[in-house]
Amino acid sequence: MRISNDDIIDIWQSRTERVTADAYRRYFTDGKTRRLAALAQLERAFDKVLREVRATEARDAPAVWSLYNMGVVVKTRESVFSIDVVHRRAARELAPLLDFALVTHNHADHFTRDFYDAMNGAGKTVVSNFLDNYGVHDWRREGGFRPGESAFSIRDVEIRTSLVDHNDYLVDFTTAFEIKAGGWSMYHSGDCGSAAKLGTAWGRPDLWMFFPGCGVDVGKAVRRIRPRRLVFGHLWELAHSKGRLDAPLVRAAVAAAESAGATPVLGLWGDRII
C-alpha cells in the first residue's frame, strides 16, 4: 500500500529535524552518522543507487533515481549522467560510473568542487553556465548563445538549457535543463524562485524535478509546465540551518500543486523515480 504524502512528510520531518547543519557538515567530512536516522538513511540511499545503477538496463525508457535532494542520476540506453549530485562519496564512487554531469548552479547543496575535479580529471563533460570549460560550447567565442542558453547532444541524450532566476537578486543564476532520450523527456529547473522564466521547448515533460521553494508560485509553475509526472525535490536540505523546506511548507506546496491539477510525488533519498 502506498504511503500518503502526509505520512511521508511526518516521517521525514521527525528524522531530519534532529540533524543540525553542523552535524551534517561533520558527517560530510568524516562519514560518521552519529546514530542519526537521517544520516544513516543517506548512506543507505547512496549504496542503493550505486547498486541499482550498475544492475539496471534502461531499454524502453530511462531509469531515474533521486540521490539527495535535487540530485538525480539518470540511466538511458547508452549513458549514465547526473544532475546536481551532492554526496560525500560521489567523487570517489559515483563519478567513475558517469558519462557526464549537469549542474544548475554553484551553491554547495548542488555542486562540490571535488566532484567536478573528479569528472574533469577523467575527461568527462560537466555542463553548467558558471564553469569555465562549460563542457560543450565555448559561448565566449561562438555566436548565437548566451551563457546557459543552448541546445546540444551528448551521446544519446539531447539537452536544451535556459536561465531562470534563483530569487529577486540572483537573476539568470540557475540553469534549467530540458532533456530528451528517445521519445522521453525530463525537465530539471534547479532552484527557481519565479515561474516567469520556466518553460519547455518540447512540450509537456514526462518528468519534472521541481523545487517548490525559493518563493516560486507553485500553482502558477505547475499550470505553466503541466508535467506528466511531478516530483518535488530538495526537501529537508540538511546543510541549511535556516530555510529548510520543512513540513508546513511541503504540505502547502503539495496542496498548491494538487489545486493546479498535478499529483506530486516526494523525491526522497535513494528512491527510484521511474
Quick summary:
With 274 residues, the protein is an alpha/beta fold.
Structural notes for this entry:
- By secondary structure, the chain is α/β, with parallel strands linked by helices.
- It has a single domain (5-266), classed as Ribonuclease Z/Hydroxyacylglutathione hydrolase-like (Metallo-beta-lactamase, Chain A), CATH 3.60.15.10.
- The chain contains seven helices and twelve strands.
- The protein has helices spanning 5-16, 21-30, 37-55, 90-94, 113-121, 218-225, 247-259, and strands at 63-68, 71-75, 80-83, 100-102, 125-127, 150-154, 157-164, 174-181, 184-188, 207-210, 230-232, 264-266.
- The strands form two sheets. A seven-stranded mixed sheet has the order 6-7-8-9-10-11-12, with helices on one face. Strands 1-2-3-4-5 form a five-stranded mixed sheet, covered by helices on one side.
- The chain is globular and about 45 Å long.
- It starts with a helix and ends in an 8-residue tail after the last strand.
- Residues 133-147 have low confidence and may be disordered.
